[in-house]
Amino acid sequence: MKIACIGAGYVGGPTMAMIAHKCPDVQVTVLDINKDRINAWNSDSLPIYEPGLDEVVFGCRGRNLFFSYDVEQCVAEADVVFVSVNTPTKTKGVGAGYAADLAYWEGAARMIAKVSTSPKIIVEKSTVPVKTAAAIEKVLSHNTGGGVAFDVLSNPEFLAEGTAMSDLEKPDRVIIGGRMTPSGLKAVQTLSEVYAQWVPKERIIATNLWSSELAKLTANAFLAQRISSINSISALCEATGADITEISRCVGTDSRIGPKFLNASVGFGGSCFQKDILNLVYICRSLNLNEVADYWEQVIKMNDKQKRRFVDRVISSMFNTVKGKRIAILGFAFKKDTGDTRESPAIDVCKGLLDDGALLSVYDPKVSEKEIRTQLSLPAGLGWDSTKHPFVQQQASEINTKIECHANVYDACKDAHAACVLTEWDEFKSMDLGKIYASMTKPAFLFDGRNVVDAAKARDMGFVCYGLGKPLDKFIMGDEFNR
Ligand code: UDX
Ligand code: ADP
After folding, report:
1. How far is C-alpha 388 from the chain's CA centre?
2. Cβ of residue 86 lying under 6 Å from some atom of ligand 2
3. Pick the catalytic residue: 5, 272, 284, 413?
4. CA-wise closest residue to 212 among 129, 156, 133
5. Does the beta carbon of 100 sit less than 6 angstroms from any atom of ligand 2?
6. Going by C-beta distance under 8 Å and a sequence separation of 6 or more, which residues neighbour residue 81?
7. Could you count the other beta carbons within 10 Å of the beta carbon of residue 80?
8. How far apart are CA 346 and CA 365, in angstroms?
9. Helix %, strand %, coil % for the chain, to 5?
10. Contacts of 169 by beta carbon, 8 Å cutoff, 6+ apart
11. pLDDT digit string, tens, across residues 73-126
């Protein structure tokens, strides 16, 4: 069997590497129009960082795993074509700010139709709005010259970045949606057999196309909703003296609720949650289900509020201004163990602080200086309702003069008035607080947006310490200030 995958990104690359690793008899080729990306996949330094990825890629590459930009040729020869292209939120036109932009998908489908001379199974891997498969079927069937038969399947990916390889190796489930026709069922069977090489059969769920597409959006919406729920309570904790970690523990021990995804944070990020919920909201509004749309939109509003609340807390604690003050930003990726910054809460927090005149010293173990500067120079809130976005955009050139990027925590914190932990990197749990405190301007503030620092220890050392959703420091509450 020959498998081709269009799109060599965070989903296509690791997923295909795992298929090649587990199915030595299958030839897998990952394709992209971006030559630099393909060259990187063929080099010693892969374009994405993911624990365990290097070993799998280096083990299979050149054997049954290939990376190529000869997209048309490889698609023409394939039996199964995964489509794993980007589906960003539309920024212009109908549905701007909400709907998924399917232009890359459509382009891929037209190309598949053009080059195909043999029957193929086309697999939707990227998250798409429900009913996309129907649109793709139409594009394929109206553009193929020789009456080539295509079966479109939905096989959403549930991997999370940072744990992609273990998620792929031991998935909770694999969902394969197809048409309930003889050829549709046969296509589902063919793809199931690929996964069955390493996934237990009872974890491979066959369903219909629309349920599969909607299941993916629903899973991401539920996960994001849990984070917004616990984050909403974190605000209440700070106002009442309760502790969000204790709340998570008490609530999460109910087996019906479960302990996962209850970590309060400065906000969720990543390429999926916001995009998928906006997509869900858009679909609901187009179907006149306005209350359903409002319900899910609130999850995004709560997330935006959480980022704003963090920025406000920093500014109000530091005597209502951060103008001209250096603030260390510890972590820029949207979560630990990835270099990905898409929709990272750090972007909005940094922009909020820059708006108030702060100077930033940023450190992230996996994000490059170029990426940090690019993200902070992009217009704010492109994804979601840019007109109402809480942060005002400064000129890129002006922003660049206010940012310094550092190679370690200690350099980033030197002479800073405050340090903000925005990503839960393990190294922030064990950093030398004494050394950091000694090098900072006093009073030295520590704002922990991920609750990874030992706050009691930090306070003993002299820090004014804020933990998200934790009882407030007297200093921050204003007692000491008002005395
Ligand atoms: C998510 C889904 O988990 C995955 O199934 C889907 O395929 C893609 O989207 P990902 O975005 O890679 O994966 O990471 P995830 O671990 O879900 O984290 C998303 C965001 O939520 C991160 O910013 C993370 O820091 C935040 N988060 C997660 C919290 O703030 N608290 C939590 O308890 C868990
Ligand atoms: P994801 O996180 O979903 O994997 P990425 O943006 O990381 O998304 O990757 C999507 C990839 O798809 C990009 O590298 C992009 O260049 C590629 N791509 C988009 N359209 C096409 C196409 N028509 N042919 C080949 N590759 C494409």
Report:
1. 23
2. yes
3. 272
4. 156
5. no
6. 3, 4, 5, 6, 75, 112, 120, 121, 122, 123
7. 22
8. 14
9. 45, 15, 40
10. 18, 198
11. 999 999 999 999 988 888 888 888 888 888 999 999 999 999 999 999 999 998
Tokens of 458: 């930090």
Question: How many angstroms separate the CA atoms of 483 and 479, rounded?
Answer: 6
Cα(324) to centroid(ligand 1), Å: 34
Rg (CA), the chain: 24
Name residue 122's beta-bridge partners.
Answer: 81, 152
Tokens 């891929």 sit on residue: 108
> For a pocket test of ligand 2, which of 49, 75, 85 has the largest count of ligand atoms closer than 8 A to its C-beta?
85
| Dist CA 366 CA 49 (whole Å) | 8
> Model pTM?
0.93
Residues 29 and 98 sit within 8 Å (Cβ to Cβ): no
Pairwise CA distance, residues 203 & 191, whole Å: 14
Cα(483)–Cα(473) distance, integer angstroms? 15
Residue type, 340: D
Secondary structure class of 371 (helix, strand, coil): helix
Q: Please give the DSSP secondary-structure letter assigned to residue 89.
A: B
Pocket, ligand 1, Cβ cutoff 6 A: 157-161, 220, 223, 227, 261-263, 265, 268-270, 272-273, 334-335
Q: Tell me: the pLDDT tens digits for 281-337? A: 999 999 999 999 999 999 999 999 999 999 999 999 999 999 999 999 999 999 999
